[in-house]
Design a protein that fits this description.
Pfam families: PNPase, RNase_PH, RNase_PH_C. It comes from Scophthalmus maximus. This is Putative polyribonucleotide nucleotidyltransferase 1 mitochondrial. The protein is of the alpha+beta class. It folds into three domains: about 20-250, Ribosomal Protein S5, domain 2 (2-Layer Sandwich); about 265-340, Orthogonal Bundle (Arc Repressor Mutant, subunit A), CATH 1.10.10; about 355-560, 2-Layer Sandwich (Ribosomal Protein S5, domain 2). It contains 13 helices and 21 strands. The chain has an eight-stranded antiparallel sheet, sandwiched between helices. Strands 1-2-3-4-6-5 form a six-stranded mixed sheet. The N and C termini lie far apart (about 90 Å).
Length: about 575
C-alpha cells in the first residue's frame, strides 16, 4: 500500500513538472518579424529572453541588438500619479570593450544613459491610460553593439514592443526612427559614418494613425520646409514598425489586465466643484494683473475652500478624488478661455512674446556673462575658456559608437529651488537638469567654430522660472558667447510653443480644434497638451524637442507651418 502511494505521488509530481514544462515551452515560442526600412531591415523578436517579465522584446538592426523588459505591479501605488521608471544602461561588453576605470566595470549611469532614458520615457508615458497608478519599470539592456547602428532608437522600439506584448494597460504601440539628411537626401536610421556628414539628427516617435508622440532633433540651420518633410517621412516609416508590433501582439493573443482599481473622479463631485468654484476660478484666470506667484496663491485659496466643502458633502471620498475634481474644473476653465475666447491668463495675444530684456558683461573676472529675462523667466549665463586638455573625454562605449573622443564645447544647466519659490536639496545631477542643458547645448553647438582653439564651458543658472527656461538658456548662452568674443556664425534664439486642443468626441483619436500658443508660461505648459521647444538662427533650425504631446498630426506641421 505504501509503495502504491509513493508511485501515485511520483506520477503526480511528474504530471506537475510536465504541465509546467508545457506552459514554459509554449511561452518560450520564439516569434520574429522583419520590417523593411528601405535598404535596412529591422528585426523584432520575442519569446526567447527574459520570460518572467510581463513583456520582453529584442530589436535588432545590423548587428546591434537591444532587449527591453516591462514589469508593472498589480497593486496600486500610494502616489497619485503614473510611477514610471525607465532605465537605459550602456555596457562596454556589448561593444566588445572593457571599462577603463580601476574596477574595470560599469560605475553608475552616464549622461548618455540618462538622456536616452528620458527619450524613451517621453515616447511611452503619454500612452498610459489615465488613472493607471501602478509602479512600472522599463529596463533596456544592450546585448550587442556593432559600432555602425546606434542603439538609442532601437531601445525606444524595444520598449514599445515589450509593453505591447505584455498584459500591462497601454495605448500603444509606437514606432521610432532616426532621420538624417546628407546632401539634401533623407536617410532612415543612418549609420554612424553617414551621421558624421548629416546636417540633421532627428528622432521621431509615432503612434497609430500617423500621430506623433515625441520629436527630438539637432540640426545645422535646416530650413523649416525641409524639417517638416523629414518629420513626415519619419512618421511614415514609424507606421511600418507599429504594424509589425501589432501583428506580433495578435499572434501572441495578448490580453491586457484589468487594474484592481481605476483611479477616476466621480462626475457628481466634479459637477459640485463647477457650481461652487467656476466663477471664482474664471475671475482669477481673467485677471491680467496677476503674476505667477499671486495667481498661484489665488487659485490655492479657492482650492482650499473648495476641498473643505467637498469633504463635508462627500465624507467618504478619497483624497485623490477631492484634489482631482478641482483640477479637472480649473483645467477645463483655463483651456476653454484659450479655445473659445482666444484669451491667455496674462493678457497676451496667442502669438505674442513676453517682454524681453538682456544685459551683458556683468562680472569683470569672467570671460563672458549675460542675463536673459523673458517675462518672469530669468537665466544668468557665463562663459569659461580653458585649454583643449580640459575637453570632455567620452566613455569607452560612446567612443566606440560615435568615434568622438573629445568634446570641447559644453553647456551646464542648473535649476535651484528658489527659482520657483521652493525649498529643496542642492547638489547632485538631476535628470531634468541634464536634459534641459543638453537641449540648449544642441541649439548652440552648430554656431561654434569647429576649429576653436579652446575648450568652452557655458553655465546657465535659472534664477527665476515661469516657463521655457531651457530656451532662455539658449538665448542667454548665445549672448554670453558673443560677450566672450567667440566668433559664432549666427546668434541663436529659442522659444516654447504650446498647444490647447479639443478632441472629437465621436473619434477620440482626432483633433476637432486647437490653438497654438507662443512663448508659453509654466501654467500653460502644465495645463496644455504640448511643450514644443524650438531654437535656431536667422538661417534655420538648430534644435527641437517636443514634450507632453498627446495627439498632434505630423501633416499639421507641414500644412500650417510654425508661424
Amino acid at each position: 500500500m505504501r509503495d502504491l502511494l509513493r508511485l501515485r505521488l511520483s506520477f503526480a509530481r511528474l504530471h506537475v513538472r510536465l504541465c509546467h514544462q508545457s506552459v514554459y515551452n509554449s511561452h518560450a515560442k520564439l516569434r520574429r518579424l522583419e520590417v523593411d526600412l528601405g535598404e535596412k531591415k529591422l528585426e523584432i523578436s520575442s519569446g526567447k529572453y527574459a520570460r518572467f517579465a510581463d513583456g520582453s522584446a529584442v530589436i535588432q538592426l545590423g548587428d546591434t541588438s537591444v532587449m527591453a523588459t516591462a514589469v508593472s505591479k498589480t497593486k496600486p501605488s500610494p502616489s497619485q500619479f503614473m510611477p514610471l521608471v525607465v532605465d537605459y544602461r550602456q555596457k562596454a561588453a556589448a561593444a566588445g570593450r572593457i571599462p577603463t576605470n580601476y574596477l574595470r566595470r560599469e560605475l553608475g549611469t552616464t549622461d548618455n544613459d540618462i538622456l536616452t532614458s528620458r527619450l524613451i520615457d517621453r515616447s511611452i508615458r503619454p500612452l498610459f491610460p489615465p488613472g493607471y497608478f501602478y509602479d512600472t519599470q522599463i529596463l533596456c539592456n544592450l546585448l550587442a553593439v556593432d559600432g555602425v547602428n546606434d542603439p538609442d532608437v532601437l531601445a525606444i522600439n524595444a520598449a514599445s514592443a515589450a509593453l505591447a506584448l505584455s498584459d500591462i494597460p497601454w495605448d500603444g504601440p509606437i514606432g521610432a526612427v532616426r532621420v538624417g539628411m546628407v546632401d539634401g537626401q533623407l536617410l532612415i536610421n543612418p549609420t554612424r559614418v553617414e551621421m558624421t556628414s548629416s546636417s540633421l539628427n532627428l528622432i521621431v516617435a509615432g503612434a497609430p494613425s500617423s500621430q506623433v508622440v515625441m520629436i527630438e532633433a539637432s540640426a545645422e540651420n535646416v530650413l523649416q520646409q525641409h524639417f517638416c518633410h523629414a518629420v513626415k517621412v519619419g512618421v511614415k516609416h514609424t507606421q511600418q514598425i507599429i504594424h509589425a508590433i501589432q501583428q506580433l501582439a495578435r499572434e501572441q493573443k495578448v490580453t491586457k489586465r484589468t487594474p484592481v482599481k481605476d483611479f477616476s473622479t466621480p462626475t457628481d463631485m466634479v459637477e459640485h466643484v463647477r457650481q461652487l468654484a467656476s466663477e471664482r476660478i474664471y475671475a482669477v484666470f481673467t485677471d491680467f494683473m496677476h503674476d505667477k506667484i499671486s495667481r498661484d496663491e489665488a487659485i490655492n485659496k479657492i482650492r482650499l475652500d473648495t476641498e473643505e466643502d467637498l469633504k463635508e458633502k462627500f465624507p467618504h471620498a478619497e483624497h485623490f478624488e477631492v484634489i482631482d475634481s478641482f483640477n479637472i474644473v480649473s483645467k477645463e476653465i483655463f483651456r476653454n478661455l484659450v479655445l473659445n475666447e482666444y484669451r491667455r491668463c496674462d493678457g497676451r495675444e496667442l502669438t505674442a512674446l513676453r517682454k524681453i530684456s538682456c544685459d551683458r558683461d556683468l562680472f569683470q573676472p569672467l570671460h563672458g556673462s549675460a542675463l536673459f529675462q523673458r517675462g518672469q523667466t530669468q537665466v544668468l549665463c557665463s562663459v569659461t575658456f580653458d585649454s583643449l586638455e580640459s575637453s570632455i573625454k567620452a566613455d569607452v562605449i560612446t567612443t566606440a559608437l560615435s568615434g568622438i573622443k573629445d568634446k570641447n564645447f559644453m553647456l551646464h544647466y542648473e535649476f535651484p529651488p528658489y527659482a520657483t519659490n521652493e525649498i529643496g536639496k542642492m547638489g547632485g545631477l538631476k535628470r531634468r537638469e541634464l536634459g534641459h542643458g543638453a537641449l540648449a547645448e544642441k541649439a548652440l553647438r552648430p554656431v561654434i567654430p569647429k576649429d576653436f582653439p579652446f575648450t568652452i564651458r557655458v553655465t546657465a543658472e535659472v534664477l527665476e522660472s515661469n516657463g521655457s527656461s531651457s530656451m532662455a538658456s539658449a538665448c542667454g548662452g548665445s549672448l554670453a558667447l558673443m560677450d566672450a568674443g567667440v566668433p559664432i556664425s549666427s546668434p541663436v534664439a529659442g522659444v516654447a510653443i504650446g498647444l490647447i486642443s479639443k478632441v472629437n468626441l465621436e473619434k477620440p483619436t482626432e483633433i476637432q480644434d486647437y490653438r497654438l500658443l507662443t512663448d508659453i508660461l509654466g501654467i500653460e505648459d502644465y495645463l496644455g497638451d504640448m511643450d514644443f521647444k524650438l531654437a535656431g538662427t536667422n538661417r534655420g533650425i538648430t534644435a527641437l524637442q517636443v514634450l507632453h504631446l498627446i495627439t498632434f498630426f505630423a501633416h499639421s506641421l507641414a500644412e500650417k507651418g510654425w508661424k
